[in-house]
Amino acid sequence: MSKKIKTIYPFTNEILKEYNSFSDEEIQNALRNSEESFVVWKDESVDIRVNFLEKLGEVLEDQKQEMATLITKEMGKPIQESIAEIEKCIWLIDFYHQNAEDFIADDLIDTEAQESFISYDPLGCILAIMPWNYPFWQVMRFAVPTLTAGNTALLKHANNVTGCALAIEKLFLDAGYPKGCFQTLLATHEQIETVIEDDIVKAVSLTGSEKAGKSIAEIAGRNLKKTVLELGGNNACIILEDADLDTYIDTIVKARMQNAGQSCIAAKRFIVVEGIYEKFIEKFKNTVESLQSGNPLEKETEIATMAREDLVETVMKQIEGSVEKGANILTGNKKDGNFFAPTILTDVKPEMPVFDEEVFGPVAAVCKVKNEKEAYELASKSRFGLGTMLFTEDIDAARMQISQIADGAFFINEMVKSDPRLPFGGTKASGYGRELSKEGMMEFVNKKTVYIK
Ligand SMILES: O=CCCC(=O)O
Questions:
Q1: How far is it, in rounded angstroms, from Cα 44 to Cα 210?
Q2: Shared-domain flag, residues 215 and 242
Q3: Which residue positions are annotated as catalytic (predicted)?
């Protein structure tokens, strides 16, 4: 039985559109199309597959405003951030257009054979399960390298961004990609389980919660299929006594508040050494309070509504649970529809929800520590491992910490951010595998050893 999927504009709660989820037969058709398309697509030469990227970039550039508006309407982020998201996708497409051929060229290895090398062959149909917070970026960073490597792709997107999911499918068709190369499935959780189990699907890429990661990896594991998991995060942002706050305060605020805090790599725990604590709090509070809130479709808006009401409620419960354990509210903590005012909590300690859990909203948890040693110790107290940020002027001392940070990323004097040129992914409860760069392209290929005696 097909299920109704509704998309809603979170700023007004207006229903945008209703969709029917696919029937089982439609799902089977999509699987078959993907398999048939793979047989042809994998045998195209790499330069032909790379050439499709040029057209893809042009089509997205032409539709930039329309696609950005769709993002804002479906999940509520400010229009300027939606435009930046589309521009980042164009950058990604251009990056793989320039580099993909090199990335997957045969790698000659010197042995006693006449010739030996690694050939990077596509695996087949890859399923992507993607979240709503960056509805274009998260999908494109999976799809662009994966398709260019010769795979085909199926997308199960978050229901609240179904319009984006269908628009992305159309984008590939508009760019001339063969039918069946990239398809969106409007599917239920039960149907997705059968899709993962189907022999046609060779691997799964998931960006989502830790809970979803465990469940998808379990189904895929039972069927001996590879997964790449990009899950939640609880990044620490360490502020040492010599941090240049005049230069970096805007970056530090953006690290927490962009996308209304709904980002896995946002700075969530601010660990501040006592020598700079008062100065940090004053600047941080002033900058957070100066963020312009309002209608997400207006270009001056810097922080807008969260994507759904239940997300606001979860954040409020995490704050309440932390205040009960001694945290103090410095600013914010007000709800207006689906808008949640940017909030700063101080006196945060381990065992409070805002320290232990991922808070997916505009809430900064601030901890005061005596010194640098305590700062690093507290920063590492997390089940997650996406990234750590450090603000200091002593780069030599910061370098000494590189080997101590157990996360997927360590950013010094910059917010943790994704970049097509650099690998992206986590450790521990933040998942495994890498996206972006050459590493991301290597996740869904068979690294085949060829030996000619
Ligand atoms: O939500 C996490 C990913 C955001 C990003 O890649 O910038």
A1: 37
A2: no
A3: 230
Residues 275 and 399 occupy one common structural domain: yes
Q: Per-residue pLDDT averaged across 70-77, rounded?
A: 98
Distance between CA atoms of residues 211 and 439, nearest Å: 25
Provide mean pLDDT across the span 18-42: 98
pLDDT tens digits, 239-284: 999 999 999 999 999 999 999 999 999 999 999 999 999 999 999 9
Which is catalytic among the residues 230, 358, 372, 435?
230
Nearest atom in ligand 1 to the alpha carbon of residue 137 is 6
Query: Can you give the residue range of the structural domain that contains 161?
Result: 4-231+430-452
CA of 190 to the centre of ligand 1 (A): 27
- CA 20 from centroid of its chain's CA atoms: 26
Backbone angles phi, psi at 167, to 5 degrees: -65, -35
- Domain co-membership, 330 together with 270: yes
CA of 258 to the centre of ligand 1 (A): 11
ipTM score:
0.96
Examine the domain organization and report whether 246 and 227 are in the same domain. no
Active site residue 230: yes
What CATH number is attached to the domain comprising 267?
Answer: 3.40.309.10
The pLDDT tens digits of the residues spanning 197-215 come to 999 999 999 999 999 999 9
CA 230–ligand 1 middle distance (angstroms): 9
